[in-house]
């Protein structure tokens, strides 16, 4: 789960990371009031789950509260990478002497959280890693023991020469690590970590991603979820306990299991079609899940055909068949439906479908070909 | 022969009285797996199905039954503890089916289990099956048949799809292993490939990977350097957008890393036959055996 910059900063502030004062606004008037309260120059920053906000015009400097209001009015409602800006962060502006990068990611290869720090701050760290890897220090941390003081120092010395700044940076490393662990993060970064002309080390921007698997034991983090920042169909799917990702194509896919769902989408593409979505109805599919899945898919006007691909292992295919019948009785389909079912209780499922006027195949390739043809206005093979 | 489990494997079930645990325990018993005990704290002294003794702890279960393998069906927030408890009690092979285990938990579990000398499979995996001998986990037994194809996969239902097609084509399996879809898991592709290479009854390997991470690329390198047996591979997620978690926590393209194209290229370079569709496995394996 992604959270906004202002939320990430709140989590870091709670650990003691020095961050310029600021507050979040949803209206230009609120932005002006915050700027008034902060005094001096402020930065107005779009709060969306996308990188490159600055380049898109979503980050602006304001000299006066009145200017902050004008800028907030421009940024609120703006589209950045397809996402509408509903909130801005208004924060005290800092003078910058130098910028560094500090981040922690959960690394699959070492199976540990890994610190990445670089003197090349404020820019895309992936690009630095690809072109000049020697400018990055990577340090894996054993979570059983945590970040040790000598490790925090090593990270600090990689960024700065002056011992006062090294110590300040080392302290921030410890605080960042504490925030990472306490909040079940999969990524936490401060980019840039800046040194002001006065020599203070402060975090100007922050990003934290939470491991979705942590949310059950962190209701306070679940509360940070901003549903207005997400695709509405994906919010609806999550509430129905479905894993759904909207794509650009026209063949709607309903599949059980993530691997088979991806393979089904790939096969749609292989036969010349484009999948409209990823949708995993999960292992024990009760009929209600199928009903929700069909509703979400048919809400997308670009979907021209729907393909069910169910391999019944744990999933009972008769449950899925009943779900299809229930859903289409309540909301008759206006687009063609292709069903592929095989596995547990297949004969029963086929009977249920047949009795209700559906046909179904047990062959994945045939079903995919047929769905692609129907989406393109062709006839069933 | 087979890898990791056979008819002599003795299994305890952690979470045997839960909804999933009890259902799959019954399925495993019916398949012929030697289920020697179960663990549910507070239900020690009771039995499952009138014959399988239930214990309060894995330590108690191991002392009483001498089980060498454990399968875990506990809820995600208790899974880390269950894995460590099994390793601490002397279980040699731990299979964690549970989906949704926090990844940070695994950063502690993984080194702990390794230092105890145990092997962990999963979490978030369907387990494994040696057809005709034993199954530990949730892979449906009736789609498998004994034979000489080793199967290893990050997926569940996609594996069933391929195994089913192999079985229908008369190509039985030595062992089918689901390593799971999480970013940090216990047993890797390489662990399974190395075991299949050593197993005299495995003549070829079918491998199903997916987007995210670099396990498949490392596996490809291993195949090129150390495998004499033919390997055919498939990568799911060619149409997956970057930055999105495709169901499995580990199935995510980060930036430009972990794409299907990159993995397929690694397969080709290593001489692994590339199945473009799940149905291609049968012909590609036949051509190489």
Word description of this protein:
The complex is a heterodimer of chains A (about 375) and B (about 290). Chain A has 13 helices and 17 strands. By secondary structure, chain A is of the alpha+beta class. Chain A has 3 domains: about 20-90, Dna Ligase, domain 1; about 100-220, D-amino Acid Aminotransferase, Chain A, domain 1 (2-Layer Sandwich); about 230-375, Rossmann fold (3-Layer(aba) Sandwich). In chain A, the strands form 5 sheets. In chain A, strands 7, 8, 9, 10, 11 and 12 form a 6-stranded antiparallel β-sheet that branches. Chain A has a 4-stranded antiparallel β-sheet with strand order 1-6-2-3, with helices on one face. In chain A, helix 2 (about 30-40) runs antiparallel to helix 3, helix 10 packs across helix 11 and helix 11 (about 315-330) runs parallel beside helix 12. Chain A is elongated, with a radius of gyration of 26 Å. Chain B is of the alpha/beta class. Chain B has helices at about 20-30, 60-65, 75-90, 105-115, 155-170, 190-200, 215-225, 260-270, 280-289; strands at about 10-15, 35-40, 45-50, 50-55, 70, 95, 120, 125-130, 135, 145-155, 175-180, 205-210, 230-235, 275. The longest helix of chain B is centred in the N-terminal third of the chain and has 13 residues, at about 20-30. At the A-B interface, helix 9 of A face helix 4 and helix 5 of B.
């Amino acid at each position: 789960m992604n959270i906004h910059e202002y939320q990430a900063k709140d989590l870091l502030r709670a650990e003691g990371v020095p961050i310029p004062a600021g507050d979040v606004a949803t209206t230009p008037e609120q932005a002006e009031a915050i700027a008034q309260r902060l005094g001096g120059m402020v930065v107005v920053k779009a709060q969306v789950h996308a990188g490159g906000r600055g380049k898109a015009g979503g980050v602006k400097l304001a000299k006066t509260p009145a200017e902050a209001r004008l800028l907030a009015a421009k940024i609120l409602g703006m589209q950045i990478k397809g996402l509408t800006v509903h909130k801005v962060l208004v924060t005290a502006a800092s003078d910058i002497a130098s910028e560094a990068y500090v981040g922690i990611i959960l690394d699959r290869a070492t199976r540990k959280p890994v610190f990445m720090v670089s003197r090349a701050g404020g820019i895309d760290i992936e690009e630095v890693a690809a072109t000049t890897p020697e400018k990055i220090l990577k340090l894996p941390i054993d979570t059983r023991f945590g970040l040790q003081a000598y490790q925090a120092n090593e990270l600090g010395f990689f960024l700065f020469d002056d011992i006062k700044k090294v110590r300040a940076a080392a302290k921030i490393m410890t605080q960042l690590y504490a925030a990472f662990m306490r909040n079940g993060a999969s990524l936490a970064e401060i980019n840039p970590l800046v040194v002001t002309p006065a020599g203070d080390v402060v975090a100007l921007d922050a990003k934290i991603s939470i491991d979705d698997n942590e949310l059950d034991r962190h209701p306070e983090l679940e509360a940070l979820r901003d549903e207005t920042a997400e695709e509405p169909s994906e919010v609806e799917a999550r509430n129905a306990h479905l894993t759904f990702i909207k794509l650009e194509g026209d063949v709607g896919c309903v599949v059980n299991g993530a691997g088979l769902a991806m393979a089904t989408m790939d096969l749609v593409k292989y036969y010349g079609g484009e999948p409209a979505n990823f949708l995993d109805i999960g292992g024990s599919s009760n009929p209600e899940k199928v009903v929700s899945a069909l509703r979400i898919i048919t809400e997308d006007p670009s979907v021209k055909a729907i393909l069910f691909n169910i391999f019944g292992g744990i999933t009972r295919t008769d449950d899925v068949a009943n779900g299809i019948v229930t859903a289409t009785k309540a909301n008759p389909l206006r687009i063609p439906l292709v069903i592929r079912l095989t596995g547990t209780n297949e004969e029963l499922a086929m009977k249920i479908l047949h009795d209700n006027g559906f046909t179904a195949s047990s062959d994945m390739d045939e079903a995919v070909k047929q769905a692609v043809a129907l989406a393109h206005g062709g006839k069933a093979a | 022969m087979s890898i990791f489990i056979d008819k002599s494997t003795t299994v305890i079930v952690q979470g045997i009285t839960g909804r999933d645990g009890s259902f799959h325990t019954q399925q495993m018993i019916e398949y012929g797996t030697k289920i020697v005990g179960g663990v549910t704290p507070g239900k020690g002294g009771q039995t499952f199905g009138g014959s399988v003794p239930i214990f309060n702890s894995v330590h108690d279960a191991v002392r009483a039954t001498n089980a060498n393998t454990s399968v875990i069906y506990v809820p995600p927030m208790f899974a880390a503890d269950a894995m460590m408890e099994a390793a601490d009690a002397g279980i040699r092979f731990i299979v964690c089916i549970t989906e949704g285990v926090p990844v940070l938990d695994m950063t502690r579990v993984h080194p702990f289990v390794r230092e105890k000398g145990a092997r962990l499979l999963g979490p978030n995996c369907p387990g494994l099956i040696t057809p005709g001998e034993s199954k530990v986990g949730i892979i449906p037994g009736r789609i498998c048949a004994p034979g000489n194809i080793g199967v290893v996969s990050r997926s569940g239902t996609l594996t069933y799809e391929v195994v089913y097609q192999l079985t229908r084509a008369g190509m039985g399996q030595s062992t089918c292993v689901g390593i799971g879809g999480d970013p940090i898991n216990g047993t890797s592709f390489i662990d399974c490939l190395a075991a299949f290479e050593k197993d005299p009854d495995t003549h070829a390997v079918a491998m199903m990977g997916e987007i995210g991470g670099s396990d498949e690329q490392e596996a490809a390198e291993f195949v090129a350097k150390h495998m004499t047996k033919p390997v055919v591979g498939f990568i799911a997620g060619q149409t997956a957008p970057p930055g999105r978690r495709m169901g499995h926590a580990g199935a995510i393209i980060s930036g430009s890393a972990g794409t299907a194209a990159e993995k397929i290229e690694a397969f080709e370079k290593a001489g692994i036959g590339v199945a473009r569709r799940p149905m291609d496995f049968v012909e590609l394996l036949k051509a190489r055996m």
